[in-house]
Amino acid sequence: EAQVTQNPRYLITVTGKKLTVTCSQNMNHEYMSWYRQDPGLGLRQIYYSMNVEVTDKGDVPEGYKVSRKEKRNFPLILESPSPNQTSLYFCASSIQGETDTQYFGPGTRLTVL
Amino acid sequence: GNSVTQMEGPVTLSEEAFLTINCTYTATGYPSLFWYVQYPGEGLQLLLKATKADDKGSNKGFEATYRKETTSFHLEKGSVQVSDSAVYFCALSRAGGYQKVTFGTGTKLQVIP
Known about the structure:
The complex is a heterodimer.
Chain A: E1 4-7, E2 10-13, E3 19-25, E4 31-38, E5 42-51, E6 54-57, E7 65-66, E8 76-78, E9 87-94, E10 103-104, E11 108-112
Parallel strand pairs in A: 2-11
Antiparallel strand pairs in A: 1-3, 3-8, 4-5, 4-9, 5-6, 7-8, 9-10, 9-11
Chain B: E1 3-6, E2 11-14, E3 19-21, E4 23-26, E5 32-38, E6 44-50, E7 56-59, E8 62-65, E9 75-77, E10 86-93, E11 101-103, E12 107-112
Parallel strand pairs in B: 2-12
Antiparallel strand pairs in B: 1-4, 3-9, 5-6, 5-10, 7-8, 8-9, 10-11, 10-12
């Protein structure tokens, strides 16, 4: 089954404790993205990657890091989480091209205390 | 820059009512336009899309027409069902290069029996 998986699905942590949210896709997609969803703000892109070792900032990259060492994986790293990073996070992937559909993971709900 | 504006929710309708969710956009060039749907507890999934002016996207009884003259992509359905209750996101993908997607803030639809 073609899918995007994220782990964990739910996470409660404390300020300053480094964490990683994993994202993996089995569709051999070149493009992958991370979004955060906040009430009244919709989805905002954090980082994206066009292929292995190629990443770039989205609209709200501050406080986040990513890496793309393998085509299927695109982890999101919060080196020192803060309460304003409490949000619902989605990973998405798509094949190359300007009109392609994005396939979304199920989401990770993060709470930073 | 690119932006998407969609009507505020929540929208509450009775089953079998007619649905319109308004969406307008601002973009340079000729973007592709999308409607995504998010069912409770799930990630977003593509509902329909249109890639050029006057195209009509359709799926599951939903329709939207790409109107360049009014920069709009309104979502319509003739007869909604309880199972259509979800959050609907209008989005655009800029033309050329990496298909960065800009999302609207989402409109929550609740259909009551």
